[in-house]
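Budget justification aside, the reviewers requested a transparent look at the raw inputs and outputs of the sequence design task funded under Objective 1. We therefore reproduce one unedited record. The lines immediately below are the structure tokens for a 371-residue chain.
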């Protein structure tokens, strides 16, 4: 049975680095209802305190009765019934139990069952609450080149600008350790945080607060590196989760050989010459199975060793678009100018690719949006 608990003494959450949602005494997940396994002692006190700091309201108490391993669905159903009986407004519930019960984590729609060990990790609880408060809404799309010189980064910012123009909320994340994407966005550095400004040990970011601190370019949220370096460590996944909560599409500039994040639609930019086709085949073979099934090819004109059907057979990917070569784009980049403001074939190709991408995303939504 689930019971409401009265509020106890509130404590100030622990301070944490810039970008963290904890440390300002405000609830970071006010829509979430905290539910805690019934019990007494330091473990329950600590978990209850963190949950109440996150949600801004008292936890409910959960009497597990004889619930054992394998009965996670029954626990989730009991929480839903109690919520319905109490007449509470619709909202997600974070249900915390001790791992010693044998119960395991389960995410079932608007109820997340979280089994914690004897050591209470406040950051883990905060991350779970924020993920429920800000569920992922964005499609993740990665762009990778089969070799250098194919203009992947330039294509990425062009597609991002076109998607933004079409009314989509777009973010761009440069996952290259060198972090040079910002050099393509004009002759002056954009104001805002870079990868090096984010604490690599941070486990959760409030989406809106992070976005407000990042550069904005033509309506696109941008996170890239600078002379201090680019993306590093596990914080990249934490950042992507925050960006995905408040955008429609997140475009990733993905280095060759790096696996795309779960649920990501991979775009492989290549050419029909044998060298690039062979490199594309090797990259496709190292993709996780789920990503390999969704692989799409963007072919840069220039090589005639193979045809598109042969390239599709080598990589297992399907053609999404074809790009021409525009010398004016390269000239603008060499002068340090914004390559997206160059009109011509490159702009038309990027616009067509953006529309093809949108049609694909609408017809084939990813299945991994729930945390």
């Amino acid at each position: 049975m689930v019971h409401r608990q009265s509020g106890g003494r509130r404590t100030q959450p622990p301070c944490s680095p810039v970008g963290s949602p904890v440390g300002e005494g405000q609830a970071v997940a006010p829509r979430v209802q905290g539910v805690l396994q019934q019990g007494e002692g330091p473990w329950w006190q600590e978990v209850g305190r963190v949950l109440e700091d996150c949600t801004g309201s008292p936890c409910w108490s959960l009497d597990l009765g004889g619930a054992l391993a394998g009965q996670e669905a029954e626990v989730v159903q009991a929480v839903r019934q109690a919520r319905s009986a109490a007449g509470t407004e619709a909202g997600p519930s974070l249900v915390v139990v001790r791992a010693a019960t044998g119960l395991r984590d389960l995410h079932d729609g608007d109820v997340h069952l979280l089994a914690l060990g004897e050591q209470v990790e406040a950051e883990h609880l905060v991350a779970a609450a924020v993920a429920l408060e800000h569920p992922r809404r964005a499609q993740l799309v990665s762009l990778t080149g089969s070799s250098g010189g194919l203009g992947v980064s330039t294509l990425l910012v062009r597609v991002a600008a076109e998607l933004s123009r079409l009314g989509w909320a777009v973010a761009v994340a440069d996952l290259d350790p060198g972090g040079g994407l910002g050099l393509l966005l004009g002759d002056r550095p954009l104001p805002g945080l870079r990868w090096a400004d984010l604490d690599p040990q941070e486990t959760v970011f409030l989406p809106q607060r992070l976005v407000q601190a990042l550069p904005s370019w033509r309506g696109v949220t941008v996170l890239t590196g600078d002379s201090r370096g680019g993306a590093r460590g596990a914080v990249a996944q934490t950042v992507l989760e925050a960006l995905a909560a408040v955008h429609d599409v997140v475009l990733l500039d993905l280095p060759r050989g790096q696996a795309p994040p779960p649920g990501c639609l991979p775009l492989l930019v290549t050419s029909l010459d044998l060298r690039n086709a062979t490199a594309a085949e090797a990259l496709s073979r190292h993709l996780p199975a789920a990503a390999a099934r969704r692989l799409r090819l963007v072919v840069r004109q220039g090589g005639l060793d193979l045809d598109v059907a042969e390239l599709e057979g080598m990589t297992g990917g399907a053609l999404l678009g074809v790009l021409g070569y525009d010398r004016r784009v390269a000239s603008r980049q060499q002068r340090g100018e914004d390559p997206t403001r160059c009109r011509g074939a490159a702009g038309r190709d990027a616009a067509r690719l953006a529309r093809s991408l949108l049609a694909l995303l609408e017809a084939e939504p990813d299945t991994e949006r729930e945390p």
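The CA atoms of residues 84 and 170 lie 37 Å apart. The first strand starts at residue 2 and ends at 4. Computational costs for records of this kind are itemized in the attached budget.
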